[in-house]
Design brief:
This protein is of the alpha+beta class and 221 residues long. It is built from 8 helices and 4 strands, in the order E-H-E-H-E-E-H-H-H-H-H-H. It has a domain of 107 residues: Glutathione S-transferase Yfyf (Class Pi), Chain A, domain 2. Helix 1 packs across helix 8. The termini are far apart.
Length: 221
């Protein structure tokens, strides 16, 4: 890497939802980074990535000057906010506010993102190995989460009311793909309005645009 290139390297795929969470944070803060697209279908690219992170899941951030490798989307965003703060801070300095942001981030990851991925993953299972009970549980979790968010977003513009932050970075891709597997817009107007604000946010709009060429990868129901 030359001196003119950004020090940070993000190993990712633009269509992967957790990668989109980190991309939204990077674009929101304006933090320079080098995007390294990982094609897991290519043996050489896959092996090179596994040499960096043997678990084999992205996103992964490398900070060569500090000699660290950071996996997991939330951890990456917190690391960026601590060591490479940009124009927009995604975690409040106040500890009381910060735990509330983290709690909301976990809500979107655990009750929107995870069940959405369960449904998508089941579509990729071969006949005879489908998990109908697991999908049913995932759909019930999504329905409950949609209802909670509908109530809370009636009086909030963003996930935590006070402005775009880590929790909104988590919400944007999770809701984007969740709406494809279990639409929420018709019955949840406040949640739908929040989602439209996310789509209009320049940072996430850029993420969506960059992912468009890969939409054919999404498994149909």
């Amino acid at each position: 890497m030359s001196k003119s290139e950004p020090a940070l390297v993000l190993y990712y795929h633009p269509f992967a939802s957790y990668c989109q969470k980190v991309l939204a944070a990077l674009y929101e803060s304006g933090t320079p980074f080098h995007p390294h697209l990982v094609d897991l279908g290519d043996e050489a690219a896959r092996n090179a990535f596994y040499a960096i992170w043997p678990i084999g899941k992205f996103p992964v951030l490398r900070d060569p000057p500090r000699g660290v490798t950071i996996p997991e989307s939330t951890t990456i965003i917190e690391y960026l906010d601590l060591h490479h703060p940009g124009a927009a801070r995604l975690l409040p300095a106040d500890a009381e506010d910060a735990w509330r942001v983290r709690a909301r981030d976990r809500f979107f990851d655990s009750y929107i993102h995870e069940p959405m991925q369960k449904i998508v993953g089941d579509r990729l299972r071969p006949p005879g190995s489908k998990d109908a009970a697991g999908v049913d549980t995932a759909r019930k979790t999504l329905a409950t989460a949609y209802g909670l968010l509908e109530q809370e977003l009636a009086t909030a513009a963003w996930a935590r009311k006070d402005g775009f932050d880590l929790a909104d970075c988590a919400a944007a891709p999770a809701l984007f793909y969740a709406d494809w597997v279990q639409p929420f817009r018709g019955a949840h107007p406040h949640l739908a309005a929040y989602f439209e604000r996310l789509l209009a946010r320049p940072s996430f709009a850029r993420v969506v645009e960059e992912a468009k060429p890969y939409r054919g990868l999404f498994p149909k129901g």
